[in-house]
Amino acid sequence: MTQLSFFDSHCHLDFPHFEDDRSEVFERMREEGIDRCVSVAVDFDHLSRLQKLAENHDGVWFSAGVHPNHEVNEEPTVDQLCKLSNHVKCVAIGETGMDFFRHHVEPEIQDARFRTHIRAARHVNKPVIVHNREADDASMVILKEEKIEKCGGIMHCFSSGWETAKKALDLGMYISFSGNVTFKRNDELREVARQVPMDRLLIETDSPYLAPVPHRGKRNEPAFVKQVAECIAEVKGISLESIASESTENALRVFKLI
Q: Residue 182 has what DSSP assignment?
C-alpha cells in the first residue's frame, strides 16, 4: 500500500520545545508521510537557525518575519525583509498580522508592521503568512488596502467564522487549518472547513502548539498533521487521499515550489 504524502504548511521546528529530540521528531514526521513542511519565523533573532534547519533537511523550507505580538527594539523594514527572504529556501514572509487576544504590542504598531510585511512580500513575490486572532475586521481592512492579491497569502491556523473566510478567499488567499479544527466544541470551525474550496485549503500543525485530538494537551509536532487531514476529510465527506494530495498541491502552489 502506497503511503500518503502530507505537507505541514506551518510549524516551528526551531523552537526550544524540540531541542532534546529534534532528530526523532523528523523521523516520526517521515514515518507518517509528512514529506514537506514550512518552519515559520516569529523574529529575526533566530532566523539563522531556521536557515540551517532548511539547508540540512530535504523538504523543509522557512519564512522570514516578525510575529505581531513579538516585542522588538527596532521595527522591521521592507528592505530588511526583502534581504532576509533572499534565500533559496525562504518561501514566505511572516508570520505577521494582527492579534487582539494578547496585547504585548500595541495595535497601531501591529498595523504598521503588518503593512510593512505585505509590502515586502509584494517586492519579492512571496506569499504572506497571516496570524489573525480576534482581529478579523482590522486584518481584512489591511489585507485589502495593501493589495494582498498581488503576492498571495495564507490565513494560518484559521479560527474565525465563514464571513471572514469568505473575505479572505475573495482576496485570493488560502485558508489553513490546524489542530483546533479537531477540538470537540469547534463545530463552527469544522463547518468553515467544510465550505472552504478544495483548491484553497491547507493543513498545518502550528507545532509545538495546538496538538489535535487524540494528542490534545501534548506537545504538537508535524507527524500529527495527519489527524488534521483526517478531521477535514470526515467533515467534507471525501477521502483522506484527496485531502493529502490536494492540500499538498495547494501548498506547493502558494509557496511557488512548482
A: G
Among 22, 90, 79, CA closest to 50: 90
Q: Where are the alpha helices (DSSP H) in the chain?
A: 22-31, 47-56, 78-84, 107-124, 136-145, 162-170, 187-195, 225-236, 240-254
- How many angstroms separate the CA atoms of 105 and 128, rounded? 20
Global pTM reads: 0.97
Q: Does the residue 206 lie in any domain?
A: yes
Asked, for residue 148, whether it belongs to a domain, the answer is yes
Q: Domain total for the chain?
A: 1
44: DSSP letter: S
Q: Is 164 within the bounds of a domain?
A: yes
H or E element in which residue 255 lies: none
CB 173 within 8 A of CB 202: no
- What confidence tens digit (pLDDT) does each residue in 77-89 have? 999 999 999 999 9
Could you give the CA distance from residue 5 to residue 33 in angstroms, rounded to a whole number? 5
The answer to whether residue 1 is domain-embedded is no
H or E segment at 67? none
